[in-house]
Structures are given as C-alpha cells and as structure tokens.
C-alpha cells in the first residue's frame, strides 16, 4: 500500500516522469562526472539509481533523508563546473545529518525541474503526514524489505527473517501463533491488511493499556471525566483541563462514535501519548517564548568553531557547506580564518596545515544567503585575521558590497551607545567580531587613531599549548603570533564586538567597555571558572570560548562547564557528533531554535553573586528532585548490521549542570529485545540549579566484553520537561530523528523535602 497522504501520484506529471526514470550525471568534482539512471520507486519514498555499465549493482536512498533541494549552481562542486553546464540543468540534494550532498546535472532544464519539483512535493507530503500515516508508512517499508521474492505476500519464513531485521527475538511457537491469527484468509501467507494486523498484534502496547485501564471506568474508553482525571493527576495539567481534554479528543480520537460521546478509545489515547503533546518536551517552549529585548551579553549564543571545516583540522576539507549546515541548525556565531590568497583575493583555511582553501568572498556570499533562514536574530562573524593590510581592504569591500544593509557598520540610532543592543534590536543584522582601531566613542566623534601596530589574530593558541606542557615545535611554530597592521576599512566594520586581550577580572572591571569581547581557550576558561568574578564579568560583556589547538581531530570540550560560568559564545566543532553537540542541540532546541537562550536572572544581575561551585549560597536556592521511571522502549534501531544480531538495550539518564548536579544512572539491560523492551526501572536525581541543567537520555546496546554501542539519544533542558507519562522520540548520533524509535517514561518533579 502506497501511502501518499494528500498527493495523487498518478495525476502528477512530475512524479510520473520520476517513475519512468531519467539519466542524469552525478558530479563529484571537475573531473568525476558519471552518468547514472535515477528512478522513483512505487512506494514514492525510495529513489533508486545505478550506473549504466555496472551489472545489477544499484544504490537507493529515502526521500525522508533529503532535507532540501537546491536549484542551480548552489554547491561548491556545481560552481566548479559552472562553465560546462547551465544552472537550469543543475541541482543539489542536501541530506540530513552529516552525510555529503548529491550533485546532479539533468539532460534538459525541463527534466531538472521535474525532479526538483517532484522531490520537493514528496518532502512536503512527508512533513505533513500525521503520526498514524507515518507509522503505516514505516510498516509498509518493512514489508517491502522482507518480501524477498517480491510477490506482495509474506510466508512464515519471510516473517521470521523480518522479525530479526526488526530487532525482535521471538520464539518460533509465539511467532507462528500470531502469524496464524493474522492470516485471516488462511492462505499460509500474509497480504497487505493481514500484515498490518500482524504488526499491530506484535506492537500491542501492554504498558500503555495498563495506564488506560487504570483511568477508564469501563475498561473500554475514557469518558471526558476519566480523561480529565488522568490529565490532572498524572500529567499535572492545572488550568483549562476541560478545554484541553476536548481538544485532545478532537485531535487524536479516530472513532467518530467515541467523539460524539466526548470519549477517547485506547487507539486515541495511544495516538495522544505518541504525539508532540504527549512528548517529554513542553510544546509551549518549542516556539519562541523568551524575552528577546535584553542586552546581547545576557544570552547563550549557539556558536561554531572552524565553521569552514567538514572533518579534522590537519587535512580536512574546507567548504562553504560547513557554513550552510551550521546556519541552518540555528548557529548564530560562525568563524572565518583569513589568510592572504592568490591575485589579491583573501582565502579561508586552517593556517599552516593541509586543509583545503576556499575564497573569503564565497563564504560572505553564503552568509548573505543563509544567515536568516533558520532564525531572524543576529549572526556574529568571528574573524581570525592573518591578512596583509591590502587584502584586509578587499575583505572589507566584500563584506560591504555582498552583505549591503545586512552588515551592521554603525551603532543603532547613530548615537553613542551606553550598552549592548538586544537580539530584537539587531534582527536581520550581521555583526563583525574582530580587532578595531580605537573605541566606538572615537568613531562617533570623528576621531580616528593611527592604524595601530598590533596583533591582529585573537586566537591565543600559543598560551594554550604552553599551558598543556606540550613542547611540540611544529605545532608551536604553527601558532606563533604575527604582528601586523590593521586596515581602517576592516576596522570600521567592527561595531559591538571589538576583540581585546583579557588581562584579569580586576583590570576588566575598571577598564573594559561593554562592546569589548575576549576569546579564551578551553584550558584558560577552566582556570577562570574557579574565580567567582567570571559570572559577573559575563553579565557585563561577551566572552568567547574555543577548543584547544591540540584538538586536531576536531573533537569538542564539554560546553556545560562554560555555560555554568555564563560564557555566551561557546564555540564547538559542529561537524563532530557526540555528547558535546547533543548538549548544544539540547540547550538550543527551545525558544524557536533561534540560537539565543536567555540566561537565568541570577546570571544577568550584577548585584548577585552566583558561584556555580557553591550554588546553595544563592538567594532563592530551591533544589528539586527528579524521578524518572523508564517503562519501555519501542522499535529501537539495530546497531549491528549482522543478520542474526539483536540488541540488549539499557537506558542511561545523565544530568549535565553545575558540578553538584552532574550525575548519571542506568537501568539494567534487557536480553535480546530491541523491539519492545520493558524495564520499569526508577532513577532518582536531586537538582540544585534546575535553570542550568540539561537531561540526556541515552540508549546503548550492552556488551559485557567491550564498550557498549550507541543506539539513540535525546537531550533537553530540565525546565522544558513535561511531567507524567511521556514518550521520548530518539535521535541518531547525528541529531536526526529515527522514527518510530522511542522510550516511554513517567516523570515526577518535586521540591526537595525539608526545603
């Protein structure tokens, strides 16, 4: 059964031509251009392609993995062959996560348009599918995978193999019983509807049924009063419960009869609990909900380090793609490493290494095109400048000409400012962070200092290497400071983010201006974290923290420690997946994914003394307890592709916050069941600074002889947790969703006894 929602595939010309198939060129570089035959499969979900020469070898990808389609020469690869193929025949498929793009050239502009429009329609259709349609689509996908002989039916042997693929270890007898019950036509095979029935019996949610029956007065349905009791007692809904209960029935109840009775059946109840309203993340905090009119230094800002790199720092590939990916993820501070390039054109790469090079002007063009697609709030361009005065002038020219009005070149209102503007004031603006000749006041008064002899680069890797007691001459040589002059043109582009060297908190308190910003290496930051003044310093001005120069593999540090001290611009290697990026994604998943999160009041107030090491000393200190009952898991992905292997899942709950809150606990592991494991294990935590805490749920495949394998995770701010019975929709290592994998939990938050 092909599930296409509102899209009629037979009447759509674009889809028709995609079903027939098209020969297009797959482009990897100026020299690698090969013809491939592409075709959309009957399920409208899978695109199949093969080389014209190769025997039966073919590849496929799912439309669900495609994030966007770009028309024309909108990737580096297609730009490099722009002279060969016109833009109306070229397009790029951008995949979710960290998978590379697919660059294609069609034989004609019309064919290119068919594929561009067709894939966009399929993506839209997929995004508009309801929870139930998605599940049906998923079942349909499994059916296709298991139906080895492609006869549209499944015999018992195919069903046994399917169960293994789905992570189910079920004894033969039980599997056969379900198979026979589902085989209504008694043909010895399962067809369409029979397979759906088999799947539904397989996924019977006893855990949810138990909750449903506890509140149902007749065991069959929840009357309005039953549902209200459940919402009040378990989900802790207080206001407008009647309205909310009616809304849930209207939205999730499939039976019209039940709707007329203002009741909810078990199917409706399960749909509600699997929806965004039944998820762990409070829907009111997904959209923009914070005050955006505070000074810039009062926000945590989503920030990327070495944005141009897609891999490691020594031989990695530099690419404008790095900027596009970071900006589309809501990143609001990106970095460029600028060096003198050929023919007077500045280039961007990781200096003194073998990383490839890209033109500065191409980075600025991408910034102009993508800065405000994910968020309207300001983007900070952090410049590490190694260029001669001549090429700095060229940089200033590119910034001014390409960005136009988007580039902020003078203080707002044209007055001498007395404090930093807010994200709201700076909507749609790009701010340059870099060295500046003199101060803001001087520019406003028309006074200009001489171009100063100064260190233009503000990354202090030399200190970092020395701190870490590494005496590796080649690395030390690489990061020597260069004394060089600054061009007035580039200096004039810097307004609210003047880079200055940090001496001490005492010095800052007396001499610092609000528009000055210092950059700290991670090891320097760790030293300063121990000083209580750091939080206060960050209430007055911006700080940027970046990874050690020794992290040549593009690994990341834990950003939580830096946020605990109020550091706003904590720059991470977005290209490297792992717990550090999970925390970053978790913190910035609230407030409309806009890249700015308002710091807690006690970190913005210069009269308060908040010490992350001793949180119990602050005013209004109220620790909370968090109780997480991990009930069950649903359709966890397979980790090992080996045919017979089935995972032994365990769940770990981690609290990331101030040192006193750092904690992790795990459930026991369940043998051989990734399909519907049941734990019913309760984990307890005490949280002293809930405003700064993040909670990370991790599923791993237990292995007694080696390190456990990662299965999925979900991270969110403690304050965004909805109490009660909730589903947690798991994400892959890359932070992309892996439906329908989820955990079912019960959460309780209380003030600690005795407080």
UniProtKB/TrEMBL annotation:
The keyword Nucleus applies. GO terms for molecular function: calcium ion binding; phosphatidylinositol-4,5-bisphosphate phospholipase C activity. CDD domains: C2_PLC_like, PH_PLC_delta, PI-PLCc_delta. Substrate binds at residues 26-53, 433, 435, 519, 544. The keyword Ligase does not apply. The active site is at 305, 350. Its main location: cytoplasm. Residues 490-604 form the PI-PLC Y-box domain. Residues 134-169, 170-205 form the EF-hand domain. InterPro entries: C2_dom, C2_domain_sf, EF-hand-dom_pair, EF_Hand_1_Ca_BS, EF_hand_dom, PH-like_dom_sf, PH_domain, PI-PLC_fam. Ca(2+) 4 binds at residues 646, 648, 672. It is a peripheral membrane protein. Glycans are attached at residue 185. Residues 606-732 form the C2 domain. It comes from the Eukaryota. Pfam families: C2, EF-hand_like, PH, PI-PLC-X, PI-PLC-Y. One of its GO terms (biological process) is intracellular signal transduction. PANTHER family: 1-PHOSPHATIDYLINOSITOL 4,5-BISPHOSPHATE PHOSPHODIESTERASE DELTA-4, PHOSPHOINOSITIDE-SPECIFIC PHOSPHOLIPASE C FAMILY PROTEIN. This is Phosphoinositide phospholipase C.
């Amino acid at each position: 059964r092909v599930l296409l929602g509102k899209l009629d595939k037979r009447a759509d010309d674009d889809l028709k031509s995609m079903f027939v198939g098209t020969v297009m060129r797959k482009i990897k570089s100026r020299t690698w251009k090969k013809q491939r035959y592409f075709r959309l499969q009957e399920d409208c979900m899978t695109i199949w392609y093969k080389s014209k020469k190769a025997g039966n070898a073919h590849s496929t990808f799912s439309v669900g993995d495609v994030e966007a389609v770009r028309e024309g020469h909108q990737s580096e690869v297609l730009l490099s062959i722009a002279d060969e193929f016109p833009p109306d025949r070229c397009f790029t498929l951008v995949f979710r996560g960290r998978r590379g793009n697919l660059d294609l050239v069609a034989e004609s502009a019309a064919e290119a348009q068919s594929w561009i429009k067709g894939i966009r329609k399929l993506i839209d259709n997929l995004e508009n599918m309801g929870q139930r349609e998605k599940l049906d689509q998923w079942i349909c996908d499994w059916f296709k995978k298991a139906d080895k002989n492609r006869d549209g039916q499944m015999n018992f042997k195919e069903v046994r193999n399917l169960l293994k693929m789905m992570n189910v270890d079920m004894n033969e007898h039980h599997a056969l019983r379900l198979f026979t019950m589902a085989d209504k036509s008694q043909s010895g095979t399962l067809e369409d509807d029979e397979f759906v029935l088999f799947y539904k019996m397989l996924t019977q949610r006893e855990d949810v049924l138990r909750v449903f029956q506890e509140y149902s007065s007749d065991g069959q349905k929840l009357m309005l009063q039953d549902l209200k009791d459940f919402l009040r007692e378990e989900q802790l809904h207080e206001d407008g419960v009647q309205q909310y209960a009616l809304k849930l029935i209207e939205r999730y109840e499939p039976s019209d009869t039940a709707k007329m009775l203002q009741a909810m059946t078990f199917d409706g109840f399960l749909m509600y609990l699997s929806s965004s309203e039944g998820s762990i993340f409070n829907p009111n905090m997904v959209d923009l909900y914070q005050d955006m009119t505070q000074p810039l230094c009062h926000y945590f800002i989503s920030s990327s380090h070495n944005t141009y790199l897609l891999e490691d720092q020594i031989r990695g590939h530099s690419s404008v793609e790095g900027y596009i990916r970071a900006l589309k993820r809501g990143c609001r501070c990106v970095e460029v490493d600028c060096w003198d390039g050929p023919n007077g054109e500045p280039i961007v790469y990781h200096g003194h290494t073998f990383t490839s090079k890209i033109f500065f002007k191409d980075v600025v063009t991408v910034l102009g095109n993508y800065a405000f697609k994910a968020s309207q709030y300001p983007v900070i361009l952090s410049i590490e400048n190694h260029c001669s005065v001549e090429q700095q002038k060229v940089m200033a020219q590119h910034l001014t000409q390409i960005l136009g009005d988007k580039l902020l070149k003078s203080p707002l209102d044209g007055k001498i400012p007395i404090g930093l503007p807010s994200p709201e004031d700076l909507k749609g603006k790009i701010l340059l962070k870099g060295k500046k000749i003199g101060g803001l006041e001087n520019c406003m008064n028309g006074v200009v200092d001489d171009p100063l002899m100064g260190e233009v680069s503000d990354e202090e890797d030399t200190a970092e290497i020395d701190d870490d007691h590494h005496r590796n001459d080649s690395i030390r040589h690489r990061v020597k400071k260069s004394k060089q002059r600054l061009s007035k043109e580039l200096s004039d582009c810097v307004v609210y983010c003047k880079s200055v060297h940090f001496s001490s908190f005492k010095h800052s308190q007396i001499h610092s201006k609000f528009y000055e910003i210092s950059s700290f290496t991670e090891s320097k930051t760790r030293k300063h974290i121990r000083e209580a003044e750091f939080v206060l310093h960050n209430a007055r001005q911006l700080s940027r923290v970046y990874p050690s120069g020794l992290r040549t593999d593009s690994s990341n540090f834990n950003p939580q420690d830096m946020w605990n001290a109020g550091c706003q611009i904590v720059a991470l290697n977005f290209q490297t997946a792992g717990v550090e990026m999970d925390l970053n994604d978790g913190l910035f998943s609230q407030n409309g994914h806009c890249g700015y999160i308002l710091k807690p009041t006690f970190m913005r107030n210069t009269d308060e003394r908040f010490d992350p090491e001793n949180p119990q000393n602050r005013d209004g200190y109220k620790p909370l307890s968090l109780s997480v009952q991990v009930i069950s898991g649903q359709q966890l992905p397979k980790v090992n592709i080996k045919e017979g292997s089935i995972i032994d899942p365990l769940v770990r709950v981690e609290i990331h916050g101030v040192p006193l809150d750092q904690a992790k606990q795990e459930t026991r592991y369940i043998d051989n069941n990734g399909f519907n494991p049941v734990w019913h294990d309760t984990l307890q935590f005490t949280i002293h600074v809930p405003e700064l805490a993040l909670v990370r749920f991790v599923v791993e495949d237990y292995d007694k002889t080696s390190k456990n394998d990662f299965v999925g995770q979900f991270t969110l701010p403690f304050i965004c947790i909805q109490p009660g019975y909730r589903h947690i929709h798991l994400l892959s290592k890359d932070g992309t969703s892996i439906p329908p994998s989820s955990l079912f939990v019960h959460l309780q938050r209380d003030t600690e006894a005795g407080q």
